[in-house]
Automatic annotation (TrEMBL):
Protein name according to UniProt: Adenylyl-sulfate kinase
E.C. designation(s): 2.7.1.25
Gene name, Swiss-Prot/TrEMBL: MET14
Keyword field: Kinase, Transferase
Source species, domain of life: Eukaryota
Organism: Coemansia helicoidea
């Protein structure tokens, strides 16, 4: 079964009573998706968590969708083959869009190594008129490997993990991410500031 083909028939979209604008007015915030991408151990989850905390403390509803966490549940039936990685990202793009449509700030942290998959996630948001902010957590693979908080690079080098991004599977770096953070040269606090400054400039928050 192709993941992109619609297999349901006889379905009709049921419009609600509250428009996106009215929802934003009522809840006093607009939804958007902040999409972190980068190598394993680049700092996606660390910065995303600090950003979520910062936004919540400012009274802004924010919620993280994190790679590993989602693979415990919604995406537990997916592995790391190219097809499964694409399906992983397709589902997350749809879920983050739903959160953003509900007026929350959805913060995703997935390696999302393929440019085409990230572009699909972006298009999905563009078509719905929901802002999509791509954040590249950029770090040299050598630094990521030194950090190795989960011991994954060690396992990948030992051949115990196949298709490990940066070692035995490709990572296609963003060419036009809205935000580029060199996490080996930026503190976590400054990274959060870099993101929130952008959101303020765009009047998203
Ligand atoms: N400036 C920084 N930004 C983000 N993480 C950093 C930074 N400096 C050191 N680290 C460390 O790097 C590791 C990043 O891990 P993690 O956030 O889980 O990465 P990812 O989610 O991208 O796999 C953590 O152990 C974190 O403490
Ligand atoms: Mg992570």
């Amino acid at each position: 079964m192709s993941s992109s083909a619609a297999t349901s028939t006889n379905i009709t979209w049921h419009e609600g009573h509250v428009s996106r604008d009215e929802r934003a007015q009522l809840l006093k915030q607009r939804g958007l998706t902040i999409w972190f991408t980068g190598l394993s151990a680049s700092g996606k989850s660390t910065i995303a968590s600090a950003l979520e905390q910062h936004l919540l403390h400012r009274g802004i509803s924010a919620y993280r969708l994190d790679g590993d966490n989602i693979r415990f549940g919604l995406n537990k039936n997916l592995g790391f083959s190219p097809e499964d990685r694409t399906e992983n990202i397709r589902r997350i793009a749809e879920v983050s869009k739903l959160f953003a449509d509900s007026a929350a700030v959805a913060i995703t942290s997935f390696i999302s190594p393929y440019r085409a998959d990230r572009e699909s996630a972006r298009s999905l948001h563009d078509e719905a008129g929901i802002p999509f902010v791509e954040v590249y957590a950029d770090v040299p693979v050598g630094v990521a490997e030194e950090r190795d908080p989960k011991g994954l690079y060690k396992k990948a080098r030992a051949g115990e993990i196949k298709e490990f991004t940066g070692i035995s599977a490709p990572y296609e770096a963003p060419v036009s991410a809205e935000i580029h953070i060199r996490t080996d040269q930026t503190t976590i606090a400054d990274a959060v500031h870099q993101v929130t400054a952008f959101l303020e400039t765009q009047q998203y928050i």
